Amino acid sequence: MALSHTDKKGNVRMVDVDGKAYTERTASAQAVVTMQPDTMKLIADGEMPKGDVFACARIAGIMAAKRTPELIPMCHPIPISGIKIEIKPISETQVRIVSVLKCTYKTGIEMEALTAASVAALTIYDMCKAVDRSMEISDVFVLHKEGGKSGTYDRSDV
Question: pLDDT tens digits, residue range 42-61?
Fold first, then answer.
């Protein structure tokens, strides 16, 4: 199977999307942050020393999505038309971050969705590390994507 990011000699290249049609595309991704129950309580009570953890994480995720092509070498700059980041506790020790991104372009927006969820998770870690260095970031993956030649993908095990 030929890889889209390599030429005939195996050299890495950016895929040429010039001949592709503009289509509406969406993608969602998630990340989970696991922490101590006391850390979760500090966040919920608004008592984390650095401030509103979830608000800062949402902003960081949005900013990161817009900078994805600067971080991932073969990503195309994409005109993102919408970003939504939801952060919710799912247990007394876990927070689930879900990013949903939209665009109308010639290539998908999955990398931006993954970047948004990942950086939001990293920001939660940064905001809380003074009180809990044992936090873990896990379960980072694409939940859904639609649009483009490959059609719709829904992760079925979530």
Answer: 999 999 999 999 999 999 99
pLDDT of 145 strictly over 80? yes
Q: What is the pTM of this model?
A: 0.92
For tokens 């970031």, the residue is: 137
- Could you list the active site residues? 126
Strand partners, 80: 103
Q: What angle do CA 120, 125, 128 make, to 5 degrees?
A: 125
Sequence-distant (6+) residues with CB within 8 A of 77 are 69
Cβ–Cβ under 8 Å, residues 127 and 53? yes
Burial zone of 148 (CB within 10 Å; 0-12 exposed, 13-18 middle, 19+ buried):
middle
- Residue 115, token pair as written in the block: 């970047």
